[in-house]
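Researcher: Please translate sequence to structure tokens.
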Amino acid sequence: MAVRISLAGVGLARVRFAYSPVFETVMAVDGLRVPGAHAVHLPWVSWARERAESIQDLDVLLDLVAGPVKPAVLMPVPDVRMPDLEAELAGVPARVADVVRACHEVLVAPFWARITAVLEADIAFRASVLADRGVEAVFGDLHPEVSWSGGELVLYADRRADQPHRVDLSEDGLVLSPSVFCWPKAWAAVDPVGPGVVRYPARGIGTLWEDPAPVVGDELAALIGRTRAALLGLLSAPMSTTQLASRLGVTAGAVSQHVAVLRAARLVTTRREGRAVLHMRTARADALID
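Model: Translation complete:
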């Protein structure tokens, strides 16, 4: 079935990016249920399978996600860029909410910083595309099954279907929601109440479960110092000061000092997201590393 989403006028002006901890958790559980359908996450499945046995009432959630259409209450449209898990669970029945909460704590939270780094990097990339080439370029690069045609965003869930399903978001707008655990599919809400949502696999998922040491050339280390070079190697995706300190084995204060020097040289940018301060290397730093 092709889903055709109208976005003229106000709706196009209300396109924004956000991601959902509840959606990621629910799709992670779905990945445990049918690991072959989410093959890129098999390293995580191997790690998570035994730990999932400790989650009480897991079968309740497994039963709910067993079909091709997931319950809308477990697919919340994010109302802010990164909503709080508890806020998203507010409308979920208590027993189901308890299972989702437990699944997030046991299966997803240990990797949440890594996951959000991938999601934030995707948003940062697409924001740069939006600034350079406009919203049409953003839509055209989301997923092979998503395209922009005649003022509509088209998602092909099944190319064999003759009649498209039409969604009018010309007033309510659309949330573009990068996801890790939805891979390899793109998803669209077909009957949204309020803003619609298109979920798509974030860039960089293939490296999510790898943990290589950052590659730092001797020449770059000699130029700016090995710690600063290693820091730049880590910042291919946004990371917080605490995350950098943990990975580099130095204090948060030392990271702040190094970041300040690199920011003054226009090699790092810093922005605040809620309570977190995230750092990411610039195109100038990418060229220096290359």
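Researcher: Any highlights?
Model: The CA atoms of residues 1 and 159 lie 6 Å apart.
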